[in-house]
Amino acid sequence: MDKAIIKLDEGTTCTAWNYSGHRLAAGSTDGTLSIFDSTDPASSVFNCSSKFKVHESSIVKVVWAPPEYGDAVACICADGSLLLWEEVVEDSELLQWKLCKCFDRISSQVLDVQFGVSQTSLKLVAAYSDGQVKVFELLDPFELKNWQLQAEFQNVIESVSKFGNVSCRSASIAWNPLKGEIQQSSFVLGFDSDTPHLNSSKVWEFDQDHQRWLPVAELALPADKADPVSTVAWAPNIGRPYELIAVATCKEIALWHVGSNPDSDGRLSVEKVAMLSTHDSEVWQMEWDMSGMTLATTGSDGVVRLWQCNLNGVWHEQATLEPTS
Amino acid sequence: MPGLTSESDDLAMVPVSPESEKQPVVIYPLRHGLKSPIHRLSFSWACGNTLRVSVFRKPPSEKADGDGEAGGRVVEVKLSNSGDEEVDAARWRRMAYSSVTPFALLQSRKHSLSAASRMSLDIPPYKAEWWEHVIEYSKEISSLLNDRKPPPKSIIEDPKSVVNEIAAPMCLKAAWELLEIFYVDKQSQSWIPERLIDWLADYNSLFSGTLPTIHSKLVDFQQELVGVQVVEEDPNYWDAMSSALAVGWLETVVKLLRLHGSYRFDQLSSRETENGLVEAVAVLISKMPRMRPGLREDNLGECYKTKPDFMKAWEKWRTQVSKLDCSSYWLQCDHRQTREGLKNLIQIMLGNPTVLSNATFNWMELFISHFLYIRPFTAGLESMHNSAQKCIQVKPVSISHKLFGLVFGILGENTEVVLAECSRSFGPWMMAHAVELLTAGSTHADILLHEEHSKLGGVSIEELHRLVYAQVLSSHALTWQIAPIYLTSCIKQGIGLLENLLYKQPVQHSQILLKSIEICRLYELDTINSNIMRIAGVHHWKHGRKGSGVFWLQQARDEFRLNRIAKQLFDFVGKSVSDEGFKQWEGLIELLGSESRTAGGLEFLNKYRDFRRSLLQVHGDTPTDAARNAAEALVSLMKNPSTPQRFWLPLLYDSLKLLMWQERPLVNVSQTHLLLNKLQELSMARLRPDFVEADLPSDALSSVRLALATNLGGAILEE
């Protein structure tokens, strides 16, 4: 049932699989990125096909760009910089990975980054340690170096004045995974910061008419709004009439149903449907399976937990994967 | 994903029973093989139910040099085990593939029937037809579960072989047959007990691993039999026969009886009475009345199709058994073991509960023996259920077998229990396929399985099981292609999951790309189809296979990206005029063709290509006609408003030989004026800051001007 498929180099800090699960990018403390490939789609034998230095400092997170834009990864490094690398063959040369963009960082560090595919363009949301959120847009689908800053805002739902001197420990972004043409692009974002207003997860949707990003839902009960959010996960929707989003805070993992029709204020209806115990540990990662029926989580407890809902709508832990040597 | 159990190795869980929340969390080991302590984990879902967990060990401290151990491992965990202890992976895939056709056929028949009957299969003529289809489906699935061939029968039959070791039957097939007996096969409803007797005869060996069974007793005895001289003095001989008789394996008992020493020629005369009694019992056993339409090969008994006939025959047979029991011949039988053993067999036939209980080893065997000898006229699930409960009281099970749970659920007419047992013990394949049997056979099951659950996002349990099975199929590169058959039978969420599945295919592999496109076309998934081709196109383009890239982007009708490519070509053409560079791009311009009309630049590119071609054909000794054509192409290009300004000078410079044609001027006066005007316009434009200088020799402009002037002179003279 379980089988070790890849041996990671010493100092590996993070890994990321591409959209089809046939390529793995592994970042390490010395700033090197290794790419593992399987030659045959049916095989689970992976070999390191490329290894290159991305940056001087340690890589802390790797995110693959959507396949419609080629084979590219965004790397967040320990010093807070964000770099985009792409695999290309240029002018009948050999295949190589090349740096196509190094996003400017002035004073703050990049905490999380996620790509979102909209109708015509590729968007990139980055959350920074000063509480800022930036949305970049790709101008030319073949040129991963030309990004335009589309919007910059803070993760607050009421338009109050801007918060200054914010310090954030971590942030988590998840795009709505639906790939339909009608769907508006939207994402959910939460912070772990010293500013209570920024923390709670908010759903942001792009308003085509006014060309701006609007907060359409807040995923926190009034009493919990200041709770720092460690990670968020938006479930794939294969036919549910509502969206399902998981939000992990220091207290619990909450599952939210988000309605699809906005009210007169443009807000979406939200309902907290489950509270899953985090077993007094911090949740570092959550991911839904392809049907959106099983949620996998891991964190400081060092195990992977699988959660499911029964016919009565009750969510419960179904299984735990515990590492043994 | 979705009915974890601790007994099976299968994580594919279906949230069926509401009690599941009370069940303890199952803990699975994640064997990573690292010696050092684990620092942290991260994971990612792959296609289907596969989870890849990256296990990172603590980064070594700065001082210590690397100890040579890996920095971590990636472990792949298949959450749905497609193949358990009895079905290996390859066999499981074979089963998955061969069950597709019966399933698809049944679905299409359901569609056409519900169309004909206007959505209701309950109207009698349609219902009967539907039954036929379900029975056919059930038989076909059942036959494919039996893919192991029985060993060849030896030509010389071993007289001492009592247990036929047929190919190990599978639990899955046993479970499927149970469902068929109780839910589908309406024709055998009147003789369900006899079908259960056959069922136990076929599958008793399945229980041998976990429980004491008659089968294992017989196997043991058979081994012993080879060395035994006087069989009738061995108590095991009599025990084996009484056990076999208790569950109705009449032919085994008769065969064993005939091994009795009194049949031997040298003893026949001295043991005449004894032999007579043995034979009388054997005859009675072989004439036992059975309430069934016919017997299977080698089976003994006399069949009666109707209940009255059977009851009459049964009473008569019982009287004969009682008569033999009271016969005075017993007094003349000197052999004690024979006398007692035969009497015991008679007690079984007379339905003595204590003797039956002693002869059987678990409640299922006892239950079957009750059908045969205590309640031969049992009918209806309720009385069967009562009888089963009594048997469980007599022979409680310490280790429950998964098939027992299923039998008990069926007898109790508890669809939830049946579903839960099937799901827990037999996995997603069973659930996806067996639901058709349950819904056909029970109205309650039909309602339960088709009811939409809002808590599950609006799907029915039937659909949920198909989704789960499709996800299991999706987990493997060799089975994902059949998942669409199951997904398209799901009305609510099937297409959504199919789209996700297709999106996750590695389409840079051409075979997978073609298969995905085929699936998209079949189910009219145009958006995802374009997307797949777009991904393939971009991949090829970026990996140096420009032609394939353009081809797939055209197939995807991705005007946006094609226009970007056209613009790139355009920029390139403006930069380089060398023949070699042009050749490289010529094919692409060809490929881009006239399909993407929206690109203004493309019109120019096409014209430019034509011009280049005609120019390449012009040499010093070419006839003037060819040169004239090239000159016309040049003029038409220069006239065309879509020709960008930065191309003007390179175009003219490339055409110097046309402008200075020796024989006669190729460009007439008005055309030359036009070209001169363009040149003038260009000189003005050079003053603007955004002007891009063409990569040409510095004297390009003056040589063009000179050539045009020469040409003008010649043209004026000519006119």
From TrEMBL, chain A:
Keywords: Nucleus, Protein transport, Repeat, Transport, WD repeat. GO terms for cellular component: nuclear pore outer ring; Seh1-associated complex. One of its GO terms (biological process) is positive regulation of TORC1 signaling. GO terms for molecular function: structural molecule activity. This is Protein SEH1. WD repeats lie at residues 276-308. It is found in: Nucleus envelope. InterPro entries: Sec13/Seh1_fam (IPR037363), WD40/YVTN_repeat-like_dom_sf (IPR015943), WD40_repeat_dom_sf (IPR036322), WD40_rpt (IPR001680). It comes from Solanum pinnatisectum.
UniProtKB/TrEMBL annotation, chain B:
InterPro entries: Nucleoporin_Nup85. This is Nuclear pore complex protein Nup85. Component of the nuclear pore complex (NPC). Functions as a component of the nuclear pore complex (NPC). It is found in: Nucleus, Nuclear pore complex. Belongs to the nucleoporin Nup85 family. GO terms for biological process: mRNA export from nucleus; positive regulation of DNA-templated transcription; protein import into nucleus. Signal peptide: none annotated. Keywords: Membrane, mRNA transport, Nuclear pore complex, Nucleus, Protein transport, Translocation, Transport. GO terms for molecular function: structural constituent of nuclear pore. GO terms for cellular component: nuclear membrane; nuclear pore outer ring. It comes from the Eukaryota. It comes from Solanum pinnatisectum (tansyleaf nightshade).
